[in-house]
Amino acid sequence: MTDDPVTDELLDIVGFQMTRLSRLRDRTNAQVAAATNGEIEPAAFAILFQLLHCGPMRSGALADSLYSDASTISRQVASLVKRGVLERRADPADGRVSVLAVTELGRTAAAEIRALRNQALRTIFDRWTPAERDAFAGLFERFVDDYEAGRQAMLTELASRSLLFPKPESAESNS
User: Fold this and answer.
1) How far, in Å, CA of 47 to CA of 67, rounded?
2) How far apart are CA 110 and CA 53, in angstroms?
3) Helix 42-54 vs helix 70-82: crossing angle, to nearest 10
4) Which of 46, 95, 111, 166 is 20 to 30 Å from 7 by CA-CA measure?
5) Higher pLDDT residue, 11 or 175?
6) Cα dihedral sign for 143, 148, 153, 158?
7) Hey, which residues does 99 pair with through a beta bridge?
8) Beta partners for 87?
9) Which residues face 57 on adjacent strands?
10) What are the residues whose beta carbons fall under 8 Å from the beta carbon of 165, sequence distance 6 or more?
11) Where are the beta strands (DSSP E) in the chain?
């Protein structure tokens, strides 16, 4: 830990840039989906990369790992299974349930998407020094890890702020 206080100015800059990045990603993802006639749906392909990274898993575990709800995952998985990118297999631990696994077609698609992503990032990092790239990669990974670790505390704190974010009153309490 450092003795330097974290200033509101610094936090405002980081918060603003996070919002900017999120909006840029959302817009870019929509444009990629439109340009490929839905062939590359970034939200669905997050499933593909998660399964490649973690291995086959049940749908519920996949939803949890992607911080998504089961119905969203179910819809996206159905599309990926229909395209032949994913398949359902019997769970080796319990044959009564299935796990989702990446097919060879899925591995090929992931390799192509990864190459496109990496080329875009390579263009972004082209003017950065190797030291800047290394520092950014390490700090960005740390930031995301710490964000993930602090997420629940942030949500708990937000829920305790009922004066700032009041819950709508039910019809019964208005009478």
Assistant:
1) 11
2) 11
3) 90
4) 166
5) 11
6) positive
7) 89
8) 101
9) 100
10) 158
11) 86-91, 94-102
